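Quick start: what a row looks like.
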Amino acid sequence: MALSLPRPQRVDVQIAAASLLCGLALWALGLNAQTDRPLGSTWALLPLLVLAGLELLRSTKPQFALVMATFALVTDQFTAGNLASILMFTDIMYAAVVYGSPAAARRIPITSGVITVAMTVAFLAWWQDPQAVLLGVATGIVAFTPAATGVLVRNHREATAAAKLRAEQTALLAEMDRVQAVGAERARMARELHDMVANHLSAIAIHSTAALSLDDPKTSKDALAVIRENSVEGLAEMRRLIGILRDQTGDLEPAAAPTLDGLAALVAGARTNGLDVTLDDARDPQGPKLPAPVELAAYRIVQESLTNALKHASPGLVTVTLTQRPRALTVRVTSPYGDPSGPRAPGSGAGLVGMRERTDLLGGTFESGPESTPDGKVWSVFATLPVEPADEGAKE
């Protein structure tokens, strides 16, 4: 089977060509690296050519190139030698650590260090001359030094790659956080827009349908009055919401967020729109004031429930009940459930989604659906809004 060699990289070709030209120039000038060797200077061309060919594999096959380069360097010691051959071997040693496998990168410096020490001890024991240490130093320069340099370069590259990866991961996490923040803000704005305007638009749609379908001047006049009132209030709330969105101060909450003190006015407005509504506020007037997010959520849930009753409920009584518990506020709204006899406005289901989202944001529970009662079938909306964390209450 023929040996399949990868295509050399451009920088490897350039290094191999430059090294070969320098080695040939040194050989032509008769500048040999060694004297008194069994083989003459012509034989030095063989290791030179082999090492130049192995330079082509320094990046793609570093470990194979190092093994073959070692044999070529040993062979070069029996010839007159060439300085370019020694330099090419050091470069191949360096490349084997930088481009080789992690295991090879750990093993090669240790092996070259052991060989350096062994060569030094062996020459000292053989020659019995301190100058033999110089041969050990030369061995270390040729073998251990490029390997150690390769370790430093490889560690630096790996640290740089790890830092780049961490930066990319940080940027990715930041982008994910930004997308989530934008999505959460868009959902919050959608809830506010729906809750602030849907009630008025529903009343307008229902009363305009009644005015068009009934040939009664008084009914049409009353319907137009309700339409005008809801149009003006809806336009005012829309302008306020647009002002909030254009505000650059970062305060994205309404300047005057509705509270439960405004429930009476909300119920009165629902009666004006044609609903038969009763409000049963069982909260303790002398009790502690509820947190603003709880009051806002409760107000919006009641508002949206009345809007849904206006659009979908059958004729009958709509009840709104608020109950203060030790650590929670409960909101319950019931309306007659069945086929409405009068005109109705279409629904999208966004109201129930918004109420559930408001409740979930406070860590509460939300339920909605038809129920059977002694007075008939009703549609019930029930929400429990925590006033304070349960763990704090447990500590008291």
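That is the whole record. The beta strands are 276-281, 317-324, 328-336, 365-373, 376-386. The first strand starts at residue 276 and ends at 281.
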